[in-house]
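Appendix B, record 7
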Amino acid sequence: MEIAVAGDRKPTWVVEVERTLKEADAAAEASRWQRHSIYRVPACIKDIKPKAYQPQVVSLGPFHHGDPSLAAMEDHKRRALRHLLRRTERPLEDFVAAVEAVAEQLETAYLDLGDEWRSGEAARERFLEMMIVDGCFLLEVMRTAAGKHVEDYAANDPIFSRHGVLYMVPYIRRDMLMLENQLPLLVLERLLAVETERSNVHSLVSNDDQINRMVLRFLSPSSRKPPTRSALGLHPLDVLRQSMLYGEYQARRSPGEYAPDADIIRSAVELYEAGIRFRRSRTDSLHDIRFRHGVLTMPAVAVDDTTEYMLLNMMAFERLHPGAGNDVTAYVFFMDNIIDSAKDVALLSSKGIIQNAVGSDKAVAKLFNSISKDVVLEPESALDDVHRQVNAYCRQPWNMWRANLVHTYFRSPWAFLSLAAAVFLLVMTVMQTVYTVLQFYQSDDSSAGGSSAPSPM
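Structure tokens (predicted):
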């Protein structure tokens, strides 16, 4: 009897699963995942280069808040908040109310946000405090870097002075590229709305567009500005990524036009030997990679100390954010294919495609070869068509013969001299043969003419 009773009782976990089955809603789950935009980078991605995902001087958002190595910046954040409040002459309560109105959206922007930020009223207050302090700090840093309100701070301020802009702001700019260190731009939109007391509906330039431009101008002054009235970016990394992806890709050809192949594209030097020429595109968009009439057109890319961190975090965002696409990942994979050595980097640099600011061509080659490790591409990548066209061009008989000739005889001066000597000897041999044959026929004609001449009377 006891066994029967025990058998009729359902375990607690079974009851819980059955309850959630009734509450499960596919639409609600899709809406839940859609709200996330800031993620913790998994260890399987961090293994490539852990330092590329770790902020060095400032924490933004909850994931690295409280890190002892970043605690020194907290006093500077508070000072930025005080300066902004004094300048705007608005009570702090107004900013708190504006941010509190979107607190749920800000919380759901972070995937796996800890309970210490969302369980209870005290946790919610700490979360709002962090959002407001970090948001005001970002506004002040970006404005100071743009030359605004510098006079509000002391001339020897370690952050918000000309000296700080020169020596400390570059580290802050780098930390703003970390995926785990992002702040939703919705925070800046709410703060700016209170500061300016301006309605987005009646303004000529919306706060969304102003924030996008401010962030992009700070992160990359040379980047193309987003179009007017563009939607507010998810966070600074998203704004920078979108600024690199505008325009349309090369029009796709029919799948049967090129024979399917699984070959990777050859290196830049090998493509050059096959007759392909490289040219810098007119834009800096990663979509502007085209191949026409033996010319591979590519956007210019500046490679400096932050390029590796930027690309790695953008690739991590594309892997973790559904619907983001894989445009940056496909570009990095394409560059890894055509760059095998320092010679490839030197060739692309001579064409203005790579602007090397790290010094060594070998270091640039190592950069692209290392960050593409364990790259996962979608089955139909945006650059697949360019890949097929380049390979089809290289497989043409004349181009294959040309590539083999150049690779064999023109890679070193000694091989070229040997070829030149062989050609010279061949030409001399042919000329000697022709001369001998002509001399034979001339002598034969002379002897024949002498035997048939009439004898004198």
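Remarks on this record: Strands lie at 277-280, 290-292, 295-298, 301-303, 354-356. The chain has three domains: 2-34, 43-200, 258-395.
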